[in-house]
């Protein structure tokens, strides 16, 4: 009998402390959307000087 009473008291204490789950948070409240910046047309253009620099670094990486 004593064990049953102790279990009931423990269950009652847990119910008081953790009785209800927190409310659900909507996905829209967790996500923030911002507009992106416009695409830079000069970024995608070919730059021969930059390509030579990149290839020389790659060559040194393969040597080392």
Helix and strand composition category = mainly alpha
Helix content range of the residues, please?
55-70%
Number of strands: 0
Strand content: under 5%
> In terms of per-residue confidence, which ranges show pLDDT below 50 for 5 or more consecutive residues?
none
Amino- and carboxy-terminal Cα gap = 78 Å
Largest sheet, in brief, is: none
* Average predicted local confidence, pLDDT: 77
Shape: elongated
Count of runs of 4 or more consecutive helical residues: 3
Order of helices and strands: HHH
If you compute it from the alpha carbons, what radius of gyration comes out, rounded to the nearest whole angstrom? 32 Å
Explain what this protein looks like in three dimensions.
This protein is an all-alpha fold and 64 residues long. 58% of the residues lie in helices and 0% in strands. It is elongated, with a radius of gyration of 32 Å.
Write the layout of secondary structure elements.
Elements: H1 2-18, H2 27-30, H3 48-63
Main traits of this protein?
64 residues; mainly alpha
Concise summary:
With 64 residues, the protein is an all-alpha fold. It has three helices and no strands. The chain has helices spanning 2-18, 27-30, 48-63.
């Amino acid at each position: 009998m004593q064990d049953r009473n102790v279990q009931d008291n423990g269950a009652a204490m847990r119910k008081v402390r953790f009785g209800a789950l927190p409310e659900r948070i909507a996905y829209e409240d967790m996500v923030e959307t911002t507009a992106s910046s416009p695409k830079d047309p000069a970024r995608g253009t070919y730059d021969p000087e930059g390509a030579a620099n990149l290839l020389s670094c790659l060559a040194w990486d393969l040597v080392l």
